[in-house]
């Protein structure tokens, strides 16, 4: 039976979509599971916990076409503090845009880390429309692929999977624009406000 450590690399890990995806994964993985959020201060502690696990699953979002800095910084610490027995590294990545291929560069970043540090890359699940899909009737598509991801890891038949909402780009843009405008309205923010840099502050 496998033993997996799940590391959530979302900068908003406690309230993240990644957390929701990880929770679904835990329903299907039939082995021992440890789950941790990556925080600013727990990198070394997490490195110590990896030893003894057959697999590690990085669950994280796409940020600016790459891996979030939370995860990047953790990988730097892991480079300096590797476990003696290296687990197989699998990935569950989600992005806001519709196309799952948007995640490809971030996956390549983890693949490069694995190559340079002697880890085997295991399974990969790329989710497009990941901000939205779990709250739509298409949630079953994501759940189905997460179940498959868990099975590939348990059976050590590692593979690459993907999913997204089956919408046209035009419909997706229309639906997501409506969603964000409604969300903004609830918080007293207009479309024009959202188009300025001040939205971050
Ligand atoms: C700062 C920032 C940058 C993002 N960059 C991208 C991006 O380049 N491409 C994309 O498709 N989604 C992007 N997103 C959307 C996130 O990937 C998406 O909202 C995801 O569901 C967040 O997952 P999380 O809740 O686990 O952090 C970005 C979101 C934020 C906040």
- The average pLDDT score comes to 96
Q: Taking strands numbered 1, 2, ... along the chain, how are they ordered across the largest sheet?
A: 2-1-3-4-5-6
Mass-distribution shape: globular
Number of helices: 7
For CATH, the homologous superfamily of the largest domain is named as Flavodoxin domain
Ligand names: flavin mononucleotide
Q: What value does the Rg take, in angstroms?
A: 17 Å
How is the CATH topology of the largest domain named? Rossmann fold
SS class: alpha/beta
Number of strands: 6
**Low-confidence segments:** none
Span between termini: 47 Å
Mind explaining what this structure looks like?
The chain is globular and about 55 Å long. The longest helix is centred in the C-terminal third of the chain and has 18 residues, at 169-186. Strands 2-1-3-4-5-6 form a six-stranded parallel beta sheet, sandwiched between helices. It contains seven helices and six strands; from the N terminus they run E-H-E-H-E-H-E-H-E-H-E-H-H. Helix 1 (17-28) packs across helix 5 (139-154). The model has no long low-confidence stretch (mean pLDDT 96). It is α/β, with parallel strands linked by helices. The protein is 42% helix and 18% strand. It folds into two domains: 3-166, Rossmann fold; 167-201, no CATH class. Residues 10, 12, 16-18, 61-65, 94-97, 102, 130-131 line the site of flavin mononucleotide.
Give the gist of this structure:
The chain is of the alpha/beta class and 201 residues long. The protein has helices at residues 17-28, 43-50, 69-80, 104-117, 139-154, 169-186, 191-194, and strands at residues 3-8, 32-37, 55-61, 88-94, 121-127, 160-163. Flavin mononucleotide binds next to helix 1.
């Amino acid at each position: 039976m496998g033993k997996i450590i799940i590391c959530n690399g979302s900068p908003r890990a406690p309230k993240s979509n990644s957390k929701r995806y990880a929770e679904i994964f835990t329903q299907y993985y039939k082995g021992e599971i440890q789950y941790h959020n990556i925080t600013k201060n727990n990198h070394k502690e997490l490195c110590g916990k990896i030893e003894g696990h057959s697999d590690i699953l990085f669950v994280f979002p796409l940020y600016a076409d790459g891996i979030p800095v939370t995860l990047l910084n953790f990988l730097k610490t892991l480079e300096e503090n590797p476990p003696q027995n290296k687990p197989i590294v699998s990935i569950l990545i989600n992005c806001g845009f519709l196309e799952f291929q948007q995640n490809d560069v971030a996956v390549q970043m983890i693949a490069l880390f694995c190559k340079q540090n002697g880890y085997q890359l295991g399974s990969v699940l790329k989710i497009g429309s990941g901000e939205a899909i779990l709250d739509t009737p298409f949630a079953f598509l994501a759940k189905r692929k997460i179940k498959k991801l868990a099975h590939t890891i348990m059976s050590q038949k590692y593979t690459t999977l993907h999913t997204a909402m089956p919408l046209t780009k035009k419909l997706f843009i229309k639906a997501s624009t409506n969603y964000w405008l409604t969300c903004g309205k609830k918080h007293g923010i207009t479309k024009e406000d959202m188009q300025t840099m001040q939205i971050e502050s």
